[in-house]
Structures
1.
Amino acid sequence: MEKIIGKKWPVFVLLTIFFVLAVTSMMHNSATSDEVAHIPSGYTYWKYFDYKINPEHPPLIKLWATLPFLILNPALPSDLIYWENGDQWEFGRQFLYWSGNDADQLYFWSRFMIVLIGMVLGWYVFRWASELYGWTAGMLALTLYVFDPNILAHSTIVQTDIPISAGMFILLYYFWKYTAVKTEKFSVMQYAVLGILVGFCFAIKYTGIYVLVFFAVLYALHLYFDIYKKEESEKRETEGTEQKEGRRDIFTTLHQFYQYLISENGQKQIAYALTALGIITLIGVVILIASYGVVNFNYYFVGFSDVVLHSTSGHPAYLLGMNSQEGWWYYFIVAFLIKTPIPTLILFGLSVYLFFKMKKWTQKNELFLLVPAALYFIAFMVNDINIGLRHILPVYPLLFVFTGSVVALDWQLLGEKFGKKIAAYKLYGSYFLGVLISWLIIASVMIYPYYLAYFNEFTGGPENGYKYLLDSNLDWGQSLKETGQWLEEHGYENQTIRMTYFGSEDPLYRGIDYQKIACAATPGLHVISVSRLYDFMGNQYGCADWLKEYEPIAGIGYSIFIYDIQDPTVIENYNLCKQDCAKGCAERGEAYGDSVYKEKCVCICTEATDEELGIL
C-alpha cells in the first residue's frame, strides 16, 4: 500500500488543478435554480433549528455547505412571513438579494464546501484504482476524474449530486476493502465506518437508500468468490479431484451456489449477512436522525412523500427536440453518450471489451465496480424524472476506476488471446493513450469556465447543446450574472429590456430591469434562456417561438441568447400599435402598458393614476 501511494506529488498536482479549475470557474456563475432554496434553507437549520424549508432533500449537505455562514453571520430577512409559510423560493430571494447580503460571497463559501467534497472523492478514486491495478492506473483514473467537465460542473454547485457520489463511492470502497481480506466477520471498527457512511448517504439524498441494495448484491458476490469458491476448492483438494471452472456453464454454477446457500454453512453466512446489514443500517438511521437534530426527524417523511409523489407524477423533460412529462427510458443513455468526453468513452469501451475478452467476470474486484454502477444507472432509466445527467453522476467515479485497468494489461495473455503480434503494439498503445488524455485535457480547457454546458464532439460542442438536452444539462440559470455584465459592457444597463429567464435568481440584483418577452414580434433587445426558448417546461405556450426566426447577437455561457430585433416591419407595426393603443387606453381612463402586433394590434392597458391621466 505504501509503495502504491508513495508517489504522492503527482496526485497532489492533479487535485490542485481540480481545485483551481473548480474554484475559479464557479466564480463566473450566478445561482443555479436549486441553490436559491438549498443555501438559505441550510442556514435556517442552523439559526432557527427548524427544517420546514426545502424538506424534499435531507439536510446534511445544506448544513455542511452553510457551515461558513456561522462565521460570516449574514443577515436574515426582517420579515419572516415567507419562512413561516414554507415558501422556500421567495424566502431564498429575500435572504440572498434583499437583506443586505453579498450574494456572491455566500455562493462562494457554500460552493467552496462542495469543492472540498469533490477533492476527497478524487483522492478516493485514485486510491481505489491504485490498490486494484497499480499507481499508473490510479493516475489515469484520477486524470479522467479531474478533467471531466461534468464532475467539475457539479463540484461547484450546492446540490446533492457530487456529495451522494462521494458518499456511495467511499462506502463501496470500504466495503470492498473489508471483504477483500477474506474475513468472515466485520470488526467493531468496520461496522462503525460502514454504518456512519451509510448514515451519510441517507442524510445526503433519498436515493442514498440504494446502498442497501448494493450491500445485498455485493455481499452475495463476496459469499460466492471468497467463501463458497474457497470451500469448493478445499473440498476438491481433499477429494483429490479437479473441476475446471470454464467447463461449468452459468446455470450449473448458479445451481451449485444455490445448493451451498441452503446448506448449513450457507445458512450461517446468510444469517450473519442479514445481521451485519441490520447493524449497519441501524447505525445509519441513527446518523440520519442526528442530522435532523432528532426533534425535526418528521421532516424526513414529509420530504420522502414529496419525492415519491414527484417520481410517480413525472417532470417536464426535453430530449432531442422532444418534450415529455414522463420522460424516455433511453434518456440517460443518450445523455451519457453526448455529455461524457469522447476519450473517456473510448477508454471505457476498451476496458469493457477487454473485461469480457479476458473473462474477468470470474473475478470479484471488477464486479464490485460494475454491478453498483449498472444498478444505479438502471434505477434511473426506469424513473420518470429526466432532468439531467447529474442524476447518474455516482456512476462516473466507479467507471473511472474500472477504466484505470486498461493500463494494467497482461500483454502476454493478450498475445495468447489475439495472436503474439499484439505485444508488438504495446508502444503504440502508450501513444494512443497519450493522444486520448491530451484530447480530454484540451476539451476540458476549451469549455472552461462553462463546465455545466459541456457537450462532446458528437453533438458539435456546447453551441449545439440546446438541440439535445436542456435544464441542468445546459441551462440552469447560471449565466445571469454574466448576462448583467454583458449588458453593462454594451451600454444597455440603463435600458429596460425584454427578458424571459429560466432560474430562481432575481435579475434586478444583477442590474437587469426588464419586462417579459411578448407573445409576438417586438423591436429592441430580447434576452432569453434557451430552456425558455425551447420551452421544455411547457409553460411558455409558444410565446417566444417567433424569436427562432432571428439570429442572436450573443450567447452567454451557451445558455442565454440575446437578440436585437431591428426588423423594419416589426418596428413599424409596433409603433403603429403603440400609438393606437395609447389612445384607446386613455379613452377608457386607463394607462398604456404595452402592445404587440399579432395579425392585429393587441393592447395592454393598466389602471392609471391621476397623474398619468393628467389630473392635477
2.
Amino acid sequence: MRNFIILCRLHTEQVLHAAFSGLKTSKKDPKAITAVLILAVFSVLMSALYGFLFAGMMTQSGIELFYFPTMLLLSLFFGFLFSFMGAKDVLFSGRDLDFLLSMPVSPSLVMLSRMAALYLENLLFVGLWMLPANAAAQFFSIAPAPALWLSFLPVMLFFPLLPAFFAALCGFLFAWTQARQHKNALLGSLLTMLLLCVILFFCLQADRLAELLFTNRDGLLHILDTYLFPLRLVSDGICGSFPALTGGLFLCALPYAAFAALLSRYYKRILSALQARTLRHDFRLSALQQSSPFCALLKSELYRLTRSSLYLTNTCFGIVFLTGITFFLLFSRERLDMLLPLIGGPRLLTPMLFLAAMFFLSTVYPSCISISLDGKALWLLKEAPLPAPVPFGAKACLNLVLTWPTCLVSLLLPGLAGIIPLSDSFFLLLPGLSVTAFWAVSGLLLNLVFPKTDCPNESAVIKNSASAVLGIFGNMLSVLLIAGIWALCTFVLSVPLPALCLILFFSFSGLTFLCWHTLLTWGTKRFAQID
C-alpha cells in the first residue's frame, strides 16, 4: 500500500506537472500548485456560467429535470477534454517507465497508480464543477437542499471515474494507432486534429442543442433513459433518490474498474507491443538535398511538430477552431445576423472579429517550449557553429509559419465576403501580423527564462511547464490590453480605424525588435548557460 501511495503521488504530480517547474520550489511549496489553481479557476468559472444560465432558462421553461443531466454531461466532456491528451503519455510512455518496471514493484501496481493519477485530476475538476452547479440548483429551487448537499460527496468521489475511463481508453487507442503507424506518425497527428474538428463541430451546433432542449422534451427523455441512463440515475439521486444515486454511481465506476483490471493483467505485454519496432530493409542510396542551416533547423522544428500528436494538438487547436469558425460564419450568414444585436450591432463587428482572431491565435505557442523540447539533445544545437540569429530565428519562425497564414485567412476572408469592409480587413492585417510576431519572439525569450530540459515526457513541457503556461496567459493578457486600447481610442478619443491599426502595428513592432535585441544579447549568454 505504501508503494502505491508513493507512486500515485509521483504520477499525480506528473499529470498536473508544475506549471512553474522552471522556478525553484521548496518541499513545503507543492510544484503542481499553479496547475491546480488554473484548473480550479477554469472549473469554477465555467460551472458558474453554465449553471446559473441553464438553471434560469430551464426553470422558466419548466424543464428543470434536464438541468443536472446537462451539467453532468458538461463536466464529463470538459474533464475528458482536459485529461485525454495526457493519458497516452501517463499510461503508455515516459522516460522513467523502464526504470519503474525494473523496480521491485509489480507492473500492475505501476499501472494502477497511473490510472489513479488520471482519476485524481478528474476528481479535482468534477468536485469543483459541482459546487457552483449545486449552488445554482439551490438558488432556483431545482432540488431540495438536504439531498443536494448530502449527495455532493458521493458524486464527487465516483462520477470522475467516468471521464477518467474515457480518457484512459482514448489514450490506449491513440498509443496503439501511433505504434502501428510508426512509419507515418503524421497519421496519429491527423487523427487528433480530426477529433478536434469533431469537437468544434459540436460546439458550433450548441444553439441547435439548446433548441432541441426546449422543443423536443420526449426525445431527450428517451436519450436519458437509454444512452445516458447513468447520468439520469445520478441526477435523480442528487434530487433525493438514494437507490438511483447508488445505481448511477455504480454504473460510472464499473467501466473504470473493468478497464483497470483488464489493463493491469496485460500491462507489461501491452507496453512491449507498443514499444516494439521492426527493422527496415528498403534502404536506398541517393543524393542528399542541400539547404541553409536556417531552413534545416526550421524543417526540424516542423518535423517535430507534425510527428507528435500531443505537440500538434495543444499548440494548433486555436488555428483549427479559428479557421473552422471563419468558414462557419462565411456559410452561415443568418446566424451572424442573429448575433449582431448581441454584440452591439455592425459597428462592433470589426473589432469583435479581430479580437476573436487574436484570442485563438494567442494559444499558438511553439516558441514558448521549443528549447525545452530539445531536452538532452540541446547540446547539439549549442555546439553547432551557428550564430545566434539562426537557431533563434528558426524557432521563432515556426510560430509565424502557423499564425501568419491563419491570420491572413481569418482577417481577409470576412472582408472579401462582405461581412466587414474590405479596407478594414487590410488595415487589420497590420496589427495582426505584428502582434503574432511579438508573441513568437517573446515566447522564445520566455522559454530562455524558464527552461525545462529534464522532464520525463513531452507532456510535462507542452502542457504544464512554466514557459507554456506563462506564454499562453501572457498572450491572452496582451489581447485584453489590445481590447482596452481599442475601446479607449474608439469611444473616448474617437481615433479612426486606420490610425488605430497603425498605432498597434508600430507599438508591437517596436516590442518585437526590443525582444529580438534582448535575444541576441542576453539570450545568447543565457542559452549557453542552460544545462
